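INFO worker-7 received task bundle
INFO bundle size: 2
INFO processing item 0
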Amino acid sequence: MSEPDSSALYRAAGLVRTAVRSALADHACVIVALSGGVDSLTLLRATLLEGDGLRVIAGIVDHGLQEDSAAVAERVAVLASQLGCQEVHSLPVVVPETSAGPEAAAREARYHALTTLADRVRADRILLGHTLDDQAETVLLGLARGSGTRSLAGMSRQRGLLNRPLLGLRRHVLEQAAHYWELEPWLDPHNQESRFARVRVRQTVLPVLEAELGPGIAEALARTAGLAAQDADALDSLAEREYRIVAAHDGSLAVRPLQQAPAALASRVIRLWLRARGVPANDLSAGHIGAVLRLVHQYRGQGPLSLPGHLRVHRTGDSLWAVSVSNLNSEQPPAEESHDA
């Protein structure tokens, strides 16, 4: 096999540095979320090169999901030090079992650990190594699950402390940059296991789409995410405004304004209300929202709904009420109308 074109490798390294440079402006301290894979290792290298005078911290999250995870975290810490990163933090976490699945639970635990570290060291940004390919995979997974606009919007480039400077670059560009910088990334065996839906999308679905529909599928999916994000942001903003109007100080929710609102707006208001009343975001499904909407539009005196978070939702007159029931089983079934009232 011939060596890659050196000029292409040089251009790839330049693209990565340019993308990272814009994310570092006006910051004094950033955390790079480092797994040791090609994406995050390339991100750390570019950050160290571009962050002259910047305090750069490598945050290595050990999820404990593999037998040798602690040893892997140690090896990744050594890689970070060899690149010149003077502050390296290993962050062991416990990934709980949730109805949202292991990937979502691991992601939540990871972000919690990183934001806790950011608060402790007073970091301005947490840099994540997600690429355009990751974005395309996320959109396809959302489509397959029948998700709404917010899910199809994929990952945001900037949300709170989290920043994804490489979101506009293809994964092969990062691989070329890593080759140029002679990096030796760690290969996560989970990234090769077809039992994970994301791996199947990466290894099978996207290549088939590229072969059958032509090149540029990943870029098209990423554009879809951008358009969906604009729509979702606009609807979320309207929903927050409407929520402040229809949510009463006693915790109830007015029904009549919801009956007159478009379904896309009403469903978002209900989601905001349920989350405020204690329903965990990861456990709140479209089925739950739809069941509450039936109390709004198709109320015939039916009984309360059982929702995650030990919550019962019922309608009285023109108001919805959410009552916490401490003796409910913690593993709730999907929302359904009770017939005991």
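INFO item 0 finished
INFO processing item 1
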Amino acid sequence: MKLSGSKRLSQLGSAIFSEVAEWKREVMNQGVDVIDLGIGSPDLPPSERIIEAITQAVRNPSLYGYPSSEGSLTFRETVARWYQYRFGVELDPTSEILTLMGSQDGLAHLALSLCDPGDIAIVPDPGYPIYSASLVLAGVEPYLLPLRAENDFLPKLEDIPADVAAKAKFILLNYPSNPLSAVADRAFFEHLVAYAKKQDLLVIHDLAYSEMAFDGYRPMSILEVDGAKEVAVEFHSLSKSFNMAGCRIAFLTGNADAVKALKTLKSNIDYGVFQAIQAAGVAALEEDMESDHSVAGVYERRRNVFLEALAQEGWNITPPKATMFIWAPIPRGWTSRQISREMLYHAGVVAIPGDAFGAEGEGFVRIALVQEESRLLEAAKRIGKWLRTIE
């Protein structure tokens, strides 16, 4: 019996990510000290308080039964308090919050819970790969919304064709953005909510990077906009903000009907997040409310050190206001894939080609600030030395 996988599998993921992984293996096999600035996985551990909460919880024998698929009420109540503290948004823990095994879990399944095969959904280009992959799984047709530098990587909603807007079930956006590091202000979110109400369209906002902002900038929640809960839901994750990527805990907030739809689907396919991890999530959010704990300072310093060093090497990049990523325009005469490959083979530095995130990403590379400052300085020196050989 020969199995090659479903047709859907062939449409999932970007071949570019696989190529970069293969390049990295080849270079490492040659004995090169590779500095990996590719995948956005935090390189720091959670706080001692979070680790202690996990340690205590895993020793509690009562927590080893099946957890609730919607998450413990304690965790959801803590999320509600944190949203009030951080954004001034009131949420009902019983109907407007759903616990998830990471935001990717929710993003992967939301289209399945809201759409039927053949429906249309509007997703950004460039965008985080799961946005489009989730539509493949659900049999939903994507409308790719271009995000371009000349518009500060914000969408021109008025350019969405009327027939697409009329048929689409939802529009998905992400600010602060992965991979773009772009940000949006209140005026944009107000315009987006008004547009969604006019078009009878659900807004899905991915806010995974709200706590990773710099230079005094404070990202907002779309739910701060009056009436937003009528048309919007928002994903949030503890992965980046609290260095808990491996714990797999996140949550969906907002429109009760959309939350209920995903809750119904999730109750049929999994049993939720291990309760010890939820206890750690409670500790993380409580610590933040008590001490305004933030990882932003770490990444702001890394951003400054890395971009200053690159500038000294002749590669000037506008500093982003948020996220752990640098969305870097590449020199003329190169494609994103070419420069990423050559940078790895000749400088030993991994970056992701921009077109891994969609066709509109051509002309850029994404660099993740997931190494300590000394390694970032070394990466900048290597890149500069290589760039001088090709001038």
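INFO item 1 finished
INFO post-check item 1: The domain at 48-290 is CATH 3.40.640.10 (Aspartate Aminotransferase; domain 2).
INFO post-check item 1: The chain has two domains: 13-44+294-388, 48-290.
INFO worker-7 idle
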